[in-house]
Specification:
By secondary structure, the chain is α/β, with parallel strands linked by helices. Helices cover 50% and strands 11% of the residues. The chain starts with a helix and ends with a helix. Bound molecules: coproporphyrinogen III (CP3).
Length: 347
């Protein structure tokens, strides 16, 4: 029996439009905070399959979403390529030795050797597969990766950035080195996602959170083409696994979107009607409520109804247009999920 969420990714008719939320396993849930405290810190939590599986399942039971997203982080990949990673309170992720030269890049572990080190991720997936199958409740499991560009921004800047000046200096003054970094990351990510599929995920999502940092005329060269390369690799071997592409904040690139994938994740800055006009015939669309609407139940309902009016319950998956924030009341997240299911339920 196929899952409603997987059917929806392939554009099939479903009894209602499925819904999940980016960053749905996280700090807005007191139950998550309790497990994180037990783990000691965030990276320990990512490395402990039993606790990572526990927080992956939490939003299914507490908020009622239709899919679970593997609990991990996009930055475990560069971490296992050999870059020391810390999550510093108030600052976010920090790599202690960013890549500044070809020598730095050559020191990093690549390909199969790097992908094989992420055993704790595959172990979490295997555990989740077993737990979800035992529940027998039709919830899908989404695996994920960061897009090579988004991963490279952290690997080159060493941390989050507002200006991206270090990686953009490389883009315009040493593009060959940037391409070498992107290529090496892409080779690891292909195998990483393949191993996630073999461990039991139902769906792949590729997060390009920092897509908007690239000017539209260069976006394909430095990011999208690498995401398409990963999708091509996976589709050739695993055509039954849907692929969701989520490039955040690129409305100017919509006319140029191409590739062998199933779902286009629409971020909250892109009008859903525009995405539907440009891409709705070729791809299922996911999204796209502005996450801050969750602070108001009325504004949430109004937005869910507006999105439903545009999409009409066809070729659509409900989601936020980016991640849920830590101070959103749980009952408002529950309200969002209930409203998506209410407005889209077919008689
Ligand atoms: C850019 C990015 C990262 N990580 C991720 C992205 C892409 C998605 C997006 O655009 O939001 C992806 C991610 N990170 C996390 C998940 C888990 C699954 C889920 O979505 O519920 C997923 C899918 C857990 C996490 N990843 C992180 C947390 C917070 C850690 C904690 O304090 O518990 C969680 C739950 C840490 C993290 N990880 C990252 C940052 C910038 C931070 C610090 C900012 C913050 O604290 O929110 C990098």
């Amino acid at each position: 029996m196929s899952k409603i969420f997987v059917d929806a990714c392939f554009g099939k008719e479903t009894p209602y439009t499925p819904v999940w939320m980016m960053r749905q396993a996280g700090r807005y849930l007191p139950e998550y905070m309790e497990v994180r405290k037990r783990a000691g810190n965030f990276l320990n939590l990512c490395h402990a399959p039993d606790m990572a599986a526990e927080v992956t399942i939490q939003p299914l039971d507490i908020v009622g979403v239709d899919a679970a997203i593997l609990f991990s982080d996009i930055l475990v990949v560069p971490n296992e390529m050999g870059m020391k990673l810390d999550f510093i309170k108030g600052e976010g992720p920090v790599f202690d030795k960013p890549i500044a030269s070809e020598e730095d890049l050559n020191e990093l572990i690549g390909g199969e050797e790097a992908a094989s080190k992420l055993t704790y991720v595959y172990d979490t997936i295997k555990l989740l597969r077993k737990q979800l199958d035992e529940r027998g409740d039709d919830k899908a499991l989404i695996g994920f990766t960061g897009a090579p560009w988004t991963l490279a921004t952290y690997m080159i800047e060493g941390q989050g950035t507002k200006t991206y000046n270090i990686c953009k200096k490389m883009m315009y003054s040493n593009p060959d080195l940037l391409h070498k970094i992107l290529h090496k990351v892409t080779e690891v990510v292909k195998l990483y996602m393949e191993k996630q599929i073999q461990a039991g995920i139902d769906v792949v999502q590729i997060f390009d959170s920092w897509a908007a940092a690239i000017e539209p005329s260069r976006y394909n060269e430095f990011s999208w083409s690498y995401m398409v390369e990963i999708a091509d690799y996976l589709k050739a071997k695993y055509p039954h696994i849907p692929i969701i592409m989520f490039p955040k904040g690129i409305p100017a690139f919509l006319d140029q979107v191409y590739g062998n994938f199933d779902v286009f994740g629409v971020d909250w800055s892109t009008p859903m009607a525009l995405a539907k006009e440009k891409l709705g015939d070729r791809y299922v669309l996911q999204g796209n409520m502005e996450p801050c609407r969750l602070y108001s139940k009325e504004q949430t309902t109004a937005c869910v109804e507006a999105i439903q009016n545009i999409m009409g319950g066809k070729r659509h998956i409900f989601n936020l247009g980016h991640g849920i924030l830590p101070d959103v009341p749980v009952e408002n997240a529950q309200h969002f999920v209930r409203e998506c299911q209410r407005v889209s339920k077919k008689a």
